[in-house]
């Protein structure tokens, strides 16, 4: 089963993991999946209308915060509503279930995930369809809701907004970026293998170590320096952290030093290198209209007047940031956000662009996407 010829549905499509899976499918050029959100689970008929007949369902919907009774009953209700809706649709599809390492413990959330998986497995076995129980470690990444999705999201939010993160229990965690999880679900869809359990392996560390790394990133970046990003996990930490700075702390002003010789400002300071280039843009011309999955990219207008427009994938809201060479400032473009820069002045625009890696034409990490959607 491939994304190009399969009809796919995602439950929890507007949630943290659901958004990352949709982004990943978009990058792969797959058709937009059918989507079920919380309101669609109000009845079997509503969910049937949202999903219809499909070849595969990624069941990502779930509740992990609330009273024990509510969490337990909700996760079972979601599974039961899903199977009842699929029974109305005809042939039983493949189901990939976003389970959790918590399913091995006796918390209400863990027990609900364990029982939901058992129910889904029995349903699939009775109908001769494929069922894959995907055991996820502790997910983190751009777009996680603080005080809900994870403590990691909460730490990033608190650091970005001037708060003081607190560790209530310094337990062991196993961190796994949501983009990696999305790729894993795509791979499982494509391989068409047998039913079973797939355990995804993350990076083990204590909560205190994760917070210490985030504090170091925060201190370095607030000091005007890009931290080391050679290690993939370090890049994932940094991109996750800085996603919580957007849009409240964008753009970031630079200190302009002036003396009788002229003016100077520090455009990029980094502990690892990367690539910088200057471009001229004629009046009325727009550059960009693409997004990146991992790339850290800085826009800095040196001379002229411009507007930088940014839109989160699958969101219709476009944020516009006026920038000028007369008041130097930079924007580090958030990942999975399409963006463009337009010369709105009467003379050529001079812009410095920097990215954390040297451009590789065979792996550009650049995906075309309009910023302003047609109405």
Mean pLDDT across the residues is 95
Number of helices: 8
Main-sheet strand order equals 2-1-3-4-5-8
Strand content: 25-35%
State the separation between the terminal residues, measured CA to CA.
34 Å
> Level of helix content?
25-40%
CATH superfamily of the largest domain, by name, is: NAD(P)-binding Rossmann-like Domain
Overall shape: it is globular
* Largest sheet report: 6 strands, parallel
Q: Name the CATH class of the largest domain.
A: Alpha Beta
Number of strands: 23
Low-confidence stretches: none
Question: What can you see in these coordinates?
Answer:
This protein has 375 residues and is of the alpha/beta class. It has 2 domains: 8-211, 3-Layer(aba) Sandwich (Rossmann fold); 252-368, Jelly Rolls (Sandwich), CATH 2.60.120.10. The protein has helices at 16-28, 44-51, 68-89, 108-127, 151-160, 178-191, 207-222, 232-243; strands at residues 8-11, 34-36, 56-59, 94-100, 131-136, 138-140, 172-177, 196-199, 203-206, 225-226, 252-253, 257-259, 262-264, 269-270, 275-281, 286-291, 297-303, 305-312, 318-324, 329-333, 337-343, 349-355, 367-368. The strands form 6 sheets. It has a 6-stranded parallel beta sheet with strand order 2-1-3-4-5-8, with helices on both faces. A 5-stranded antiparallel beta sheet has the order 11-20-17-22-15, with no helix packed on it. Strand 12 (257-259) and strand 13 form a beta hairpin. The longest helix has 22 residues, at 68-89. The chain is globular and about 80 Å long. The chain starts with 7 loop residues before the first strand and ends in a 7-residue tail after the last strand.
